[in-house]
Amino acid sequence: MPNNSDKKVILRIMGAAVGVFILVYLGITLIGGPDDRNAVEKLESIIEDINVNTVTHDPIPVDITPENLKDTLPDISSYPPQVRETTSNYIEIFSSTEKAGSGTDGWLTEVAQDFNDARITIDGKQVSVRLRGIPSGEAADYITSGKYRPDAYTPSNELWGEMIISQGVKAELVEKRLVGNVAGILLTKAKKDELVNKYGAINTTTIIDAVANDELDMGYTNPFASSTGLNFLISALYAIDSSNLLSDRATAGFESFQPNIPVVAYTTLQMREAAKSGVLDCFVLEYQTYVNTPDIRYYEFNPFGFRHDNPMYAIGELPEEKRQILDEFVEFTQQEKYQALATEYGFDGLDEYKSEAGPVSGDVTIQAQRLWKEVKNAKPIYAVFVADVSGSMDGEPLNNLKRSLLEGQKYIGGDNLVGLVSYSDDVNIDLPVAKFDLDQRSRFAGAVYDLQAGGSTATFDAIAVAMNMLIEQKAAGPNRDPNLKPRIFVLSDGEDNKGHSLGNIREIVQELGIPIYTIGYNANIPSLEEISSINEAACINADSDDVVYKLRNLFNAEL
Fold first, then answer.
1. Has residue 469 got a pLDDT over 50?
2. pLDDT tens digits, residue range 43-88?
3. I need a labelling partner for 496 at 20 to 30 A (CA). Which of 150, 159, 202, 547 fits?
4. Quick one: which of 163, 168, 143 has its CA closest to 153?
5. Which residues pair with residue 58 across a beta bridge?
6. Cα-atom radius of gyration of the chain, to the nearest Å?
7. Terminal-residue alpha carbon distance, the chain
8. Domain assignment of residue 209, given as a range
9. How confident is the model at residue 494 (pLDDT cuts 50, 70, 90)?
């Protein structure tokens, strides 16, 4: 008969075996199939080697009022001019980045440079332009918030122009088309053939029906930031109810569609990388980007929605002299030489395409964005924030990390489930995963406030603990919901020097399919990008004064 000591050993072995069984069961429930048993068993083995502490923190009062948009935007110096003015008489233009960058994305950059080199005079005075490349949505935020207003604005499509007008900005459409472009739904050939056989054609309506019927894995970009994402949102609502984009019918149709979307990407780059991995049957992209990205040509381009013809708006009450410069510049862009250059860079394709939808007011577009946020939040996310508090984060990096979390939490929907882990030598569970109501927010704020830096950096131990928390939460307690989507957000400088390595957990992360978003502070960004790229999540460089703005957009897309 075993003695008391032997009994304790037996009980510990039995307990461990039961623990492994439960974790394996929960892991299968998390992802939905037996193929993940191996990943969960490996995770359990890793967790056994980690020193995990549960730390309690006093809650503190929390401000749930989002920061004024003007205050979240970075100083305009964050977007230095692509082309600088060469005279004292000039206009400043905000342009979408697909035409005001470099290389094949630098059409307007080259035109503006040539305009300045031409030394054009108006009323005997030489004139020039200053050109800044800024994403259409962020440029609209600068203008509507009053943070910084240019003399002219050329977004990708007219939806942004109508939005700023509806918010009280005086903006006059000077030119409907600087250069032509089209948004498209990209489908693999096999999936396109399958849908054509069933639905007869590929258009926005059939895509919505296929997604709603769970026949299509589709991704699109954040409609608060992306021209193509905004276009898709408005086009989808129009396809459901063309008479009223905000009707009960349109809302119900969108509610049946959105829960089956696996990816709403933070940026076009993230969307493109997800597509390259083969995890998506379908995603949205502009034609000019498509033709300049050879490695996604196995997707077929199907135009949809409103044209992206790069309109030009005059902003505010322009003095006559500035208006003349703007008119002269617009005329300059239309020269045969520059239209030929545009074609060379991938613009002006599919000129025969015409939108089926009529004009949409800015008010309707803004309400559609709000509807999207509400519908997206109806399917909660459960997430763990993983905060690096190692010695290398001491001082400004940790202070910025705290500010990011305290301000960023204002943009997280209350129906989501959120937890917090911090790490240095060991891993601390500072806040178990729970619904992000006001009580949880105050506990979250208290835990963030208490974070202190010191020690080594066990980054991948912390990620393993976060994955384990998500697995356990998925199938436990009153919040059990098999449809919850897991997310991990790592806030770090990207270094690690203790505990497990990326190689130890990479396969587990891949098999469980949990996206890991990384936010870098004084960081080794390539190291963080490597972590995020495992499951096509975004990596944000927080070393600028726009980190809260970036998190606002990220959380709009993910939380």
1. yes
2. 888 888 899 999 999 999 988 777 788 888 889 998 999 999 999 9
3. 547
4. 143
5. none
6. 26
7. 56
8. 184-306
9. confident
Q: DSSP class of residue 155? A: -
Task: Write the DSSP assignment of 258-320 as a string of letters.
Answer: GGG--EEESSHHHHHHHHHTT--SEEEEEHHHHHT-GGGTTEEEEEEEEE----EEEESS--H
Which amino acid is located at 537 in the chain? A
On whether residue 370 sits in a domain, the answer given is no
Beta bridge partners of 434: 418
280 and 251 in a common domain: yes
In this structure, are strands 171-175 and 312-315 parallel, antiparallel, or unpaired?
antiparallel
Which residue has tokens 């049957």?
Answer: 281
Left if phi > 0, otherwise alpha if psi is -120 to 50, otherwise beta: which for 146? left
DSSP 206: H
How many Cα atoms are found within 13 Å in the side-chain-facing hemisphere of 309? 19
Tell me what the mean pLDDT of segment 151-157 comes to: 97
Question: Is residue 353 in a domain?
Answer: no
d(CA 376, CA 478): 22
Tokens of 492: 């770090």
Q: Pick the last residue of a domain from 289, 324, 344.
A: 344
* Per-residue pLDDT tens over the stretch 229-282: 999 999 999 999 999 999 999 999 999 888 888 778 777 777 777 777 777 889
Q: Are 82 and 324 in contact (CB under 8 A)?
A: no
pTM of the model: 0.84
Contact 520, 530 (CB under 8 A): no
Residue with tokens 């399917």: 379
- Helix (H) / strand (E) containing 253: helix 248-257
Residue at 366 is within a domain = no
Same domain, 290 and 387: no
